[in-house]
Amino acid sequence: MKIASISAEEIRDSRGNPTLYVTVSCEDGTKGSFAVPSGASTGATEAVELRDESASGGHVLTAIRHIATEVNDALRGMEVAEQGKIDAALIALDGTERKSRLGGNSTIGVSGAVCRAAAASSGIELYEYLRSLADIPPSNRIAPFLYMNLINGGMHASTRLAFQEYLIVPQTESPQEALSMGVEALRRVEEHVTNRHQGAWAIGDEGGVALDVEDTEIPLRILSEVRDSLKNQGSFEIALDIAASSFWSDGSYRIGEHTLSSEELGAKIAEYAATYDLFSIEDPFEEQDFEAFAGLQAALPDTRIVGDDLTTTNAWRLQKAIDKRSIRAVIIKPNQIGTISETLETMGLARKHGIDCIVSHRSGETMDTFIADLAFAFGTLGIKVGAPRTKERMAKIERLIEIASADTEAG
Ligand code: PGA
Ligand code: ZN
Description:
With 411 residues, this protein is an alpha/beta fold. 40% of the residues lie in helices and 18% in strands. Residues 39-42, 164, 241, 243, 308, 360, 362-363 line the site of 2-phosphoglycolic acid.
């Protein structure tokens, strides 16, 4: 089925910022859309998000114009099922290393909408279509673990807490059970913070509690107490996204009043890993320090060190991380790289080398649920969905529940 037209409009993300909603229409009338998310603690090597310079409020009107004119002209008449060719055409049309001319937000919007339109025109679910696009060995998981970010710090909250995310990972492959556990755990975290730390607290960008403490261990203690209190309702593990680039400057890490060397930060994290039996630790060091990641991974062979800003869903950065043994798991965010084909390539490379994939939302989210299908399609280890609270986060969880139960019924 051929592409008839591509258009885009401006919508608002969960932070209230403008973002793109792209629609691809096929000649048979089927359509596919994609609503683009946006990061706050973005990696330096991510695809560039194109925002209007002149307008206040970071509008995306230039990106909309690019899509309606040159992208529409270039892709109209192409076979919607030829995802690889379409993405290659987008990359060539952009012509820059980090998609800065068209904008990575434009390219992922178009690429994702093409993918959805192709699935719709062949009458299959998105996750089924994604499986047909990529030769990624199947895993035997029923559904990915939900990574739920219950305590928000770093650039996702206006507090003193330097580490960005304190997450729970319910140890069940039933997303429904994981959701129930997440809702109950969030309630207990809120109760704990209200009674013992702050009577009033704000909600962070990903829906968790914005805890205003400087001590990076306090949130771990809270999650650990909550874990103990919920023991008879199921088990969850604790994970961290340190997002260390956000508090690194001039060769050291600033945590409140303290300035830490890479070795000192590593020692602190290793102690946390042992005390709280951490399931995974994302971006423990700044995004160019492949060696420090490797040192910590070697010191903590039983814990997954995870690359996010380190790897930015980029196959050659992942290859470098594999060569240097920096990580055991990688974050997959389609908008970090800017096309679906490149996202699948990075996931394929990870699988080939036994690196676990954790598909992730962004801190600025939309109602789009593409990542739920992506994680489910390839049975990834996990999917990061924030706290089970706001509608943009709940949409992904609900989609995962829907497809996991439909797929189980279909056998
Ligand atoms: P971002 O953060 O979406 O603000 O970049 C998410 C993360 O670091 O995992
Ligand atoms: Zn991260």
